[in-house]
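fyi for ur records
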Amino acid sequence: MFIGIDLGGTKIEGIAMSGAGDELLRKRVPTAAGDYQAILNTIKGLVDEIESSLNERATVGIGTPGAISPATGLLRNSNSVCMNGKPVDKDLARILNREVRIANDANCFALSEATDGAAAGETVVFGVIIGTGTGAGIVVNGHVLSGPNAIAGEWGHNPLPWPLDNERPGPSCYCGKHGCIETWLSGPGMSHDYLELSGNALDAKQVVELASNGDNAAELCLRNYEHRMARSLAHVINILDPDVIVLGGGMGNIQRLYSSVPGLWRQYVFSDRVDTRLLAPKYGDSSGVRGAAWLWNEN
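which gave:
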């Protein structure tokens, strides 16, 4: 039995799966904001409850924003800031009395979809999460590619490729630079673009709804977004040449992207044809926690 834990800023989700990928039990509980020890205790409580309910001891994988630094062994870049600078994997191993595996949430998403999801059986998978931020994970032959700096897949903090004149220098990013892909493709990025075009402040979901109802400014905003995504993913294809790109997160619910973006990225990919497929995730919002469980099933 595999247990996966998805550590979020507002909730912690636990799932138990069989070796065949069948979901056996799932539970969500609130995250104890700002309290490191309380978060560890919550995770332990989830694991204990799952194992007690199913009467079986399991492996435990953890998905979290940020990553363990290879240099220090401490978590960095988590939006649950109380977790940063802590040896999360070692502390959890101690209180759970077993080895645990921990990975970035985008890596878990990519692993889930590459294992038994939309990209099952593919050799190279680029799993994208676009919501309030923009991240990605890479899976090669069923194994998460992390890299010596544990930042493989962090495409959101590269600059928007082939920028137009009106896209320079680009919006400021929290990382301290301008024009990062995240500032354009995240939900807030779309909202900002629509505000610039129309003078109205709406969230991304509202913009998409307006575009479907014929609003000219919203339609232009969506076309801008599609073109920027096409350029951004073409850059990935030119470097990684993945078999499949799986598009998750809230922005992945925009159905027109799956037909429009591949039609646009052809002009930027350095090849006579593009066989990379852009797919929606099979498991949606559940993919991250499933991928955390699958950390113990990597090939």
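The mean pLDDT is 96. thats all i got for now
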